[in-house]
Write a structure and sequence with these properties.
The chain has a domain of 62 residues. It is built from five helices and no strands. It starts with a helix and ends in a 10-residue tail after the last helix. The longest helix has 18 residues. It is an all-alpha fold.
């Protein structure tokens, strides 16, 4: 019986750890902020990749502009449509 309670508490611990965010780089933080702003948490990894390739400040400005528009139903799709207007950062 004792093993099952330890196992259950271990599973609970894993569930708690899963909900915690582990952000190690700036582009990850920007990507998560984009996902929250656009109400599109299902595509967090896409926004992290965009934050790595594009100017973070320009992406955040565009996302806030899209979020302020009340007539947009799918903010993530509209953001992606406007994305080509944002300048990419130079690779080093």
């Amino acid at each position: 019986m004792r093993k099952s309670t330890n196992k259950k508490s271990y599973l609970d611990l894993l569930k708690e750890r899963k909900t915690d965010s582990r952000v190690y780089f700036h582009h990850q933080s920007v990507g998560l902020e984009l996902a929250e702003t656009l109400e599109d948490k299902g595509h967090k990894s896409l926004y992290m990749k965009l934050a790595k390739d594009y100017d973070a400040q320009a992406l955040l400005e565009l996302a806030k502009d899209v979020a302020m528009r009340s007539n947009v139903q799918n903010k993530g799709a509209y953001f992606m449509k406007l994305l080509p207007s944002v300048r990419k950062t130079k690779k080093q």
